[in-house]
Write a structure and sequence with these properties.
Number of strands: 12
Number of helices: 8
CATH class of the largest domain: Alpha Beta
CATH architecture of the largest domain: 3-Layer(aba) Sandwich
């Protein structure tokens, strides 16, 4: 559904991506982990068309994503970047309505159908009662949900999330990931997200990718992850590995830095 072929990217003399290949299938939740500076955010920016690679191709359903019209891509891919412009003086509902812009016709007015999707997104993120509040009055977790609601209002088939839980406390992190998982299960939403927490990435995903030195070093079903290789080779750490009783997915508790 979304794929990269021979992707390379440099910043000056530093090679950030090195002949990277990636395939994301319809209905998957795929999480990407890796140490700082390994190229995760650069890959995200290329998938979101913020950056153009020096080499390689990104395809969306077999089409070169950089040759597609922006509105065509926006109807297929919803984005939640880590760094974004904060419109603090607008209401929650106004922000969420921006998700419908790819569908607006010549009049640029929201239709009854558009308003229905906006209300659905507000309900899905438990923000309908706060729809008239300014973003500046919300907590960090609520603002994050508002941005997610905007992405959901696009009614896209793919959602790209760059470290969506970074500034949230643990309760909001789990609420957010529970919602993403629910959207995947109920709507078949395809999700690609960058996460720092390895345990969360494993428990909430079908596949785990780990980047090292600008390429995909590990690509594994989350029930079959080579945990020692992941911890030691990618992060240079060690830990005690356990398996969740219900899912049989691994999780770890740190020991010490190797």
């Amino acid at each position: 559904m979304l794929s990269c072929h021979h992707l390379s990217m440099n910043y000056g003399s530093k090679q950030v991506l090195d002949n990277l290949h990636l395939n994301i299938s319809k209905g998957e939740i795929v999480s990407l982990v890796g140490s700082n500076g390994c190229g995760k955010s650069t890959l995200f920016k290329i998938l979101g068309r913020y950056l153009f690679p020096i080499q390689g191709r990104v395809e969306l359903e077999g089409k070169d994503i950089f040759r597609m019209k922006s509105k065509e891509v926006a109807k297929k891919i919803g984005l939640l970047p880590q760094v974004r412009r904060e419109f603090m003086d607008i209401s929650v509902e106004t922000l969420v309505s921006y998700g419908r812009y790819p569908y607006l016709g010549f009049s640029q007015r929201l239709t009854k159908e558009d308003k229905g999707f906006i209300q659905w997104a507000l309900d899905a993120t438990d923000l309908y009662q706060k729809k008239d509040q300014l973003l500046s009055t919300l907590s960090g977790g609520e603002r994050q949900r508002a941005w997610l609601a905007m992405a959901l209002a696009q009614q896209t088939e793919i959602l790209l999330l760059d470290e969506p839980t970074t500034f949230l406390d643990i309760s909001y992190q789990l609420d957010f990931l529970d919602l993403i998982y629910k959207m995947n299960q109920e709507r078949g939403l395809t999700v690609f997200m960058i996460l720092h927490d390895i345990n969360q990435a494993i428990q909430y995903s079908h596949r785990l990718l780990a980047m090292k030195e600008g390429t995909i070093y590990i690509d594994s079903d989350t029930k079959k992850i080579p945990m020692e290789k992941l911890l030691q080779d990618v992060f240079g750490i060690s830990g005690t590995i356990f398996y969740h009783g219900d899912t049989q997915k691994p999780y770890w508790i740190p020991k010490n830095k190797i």
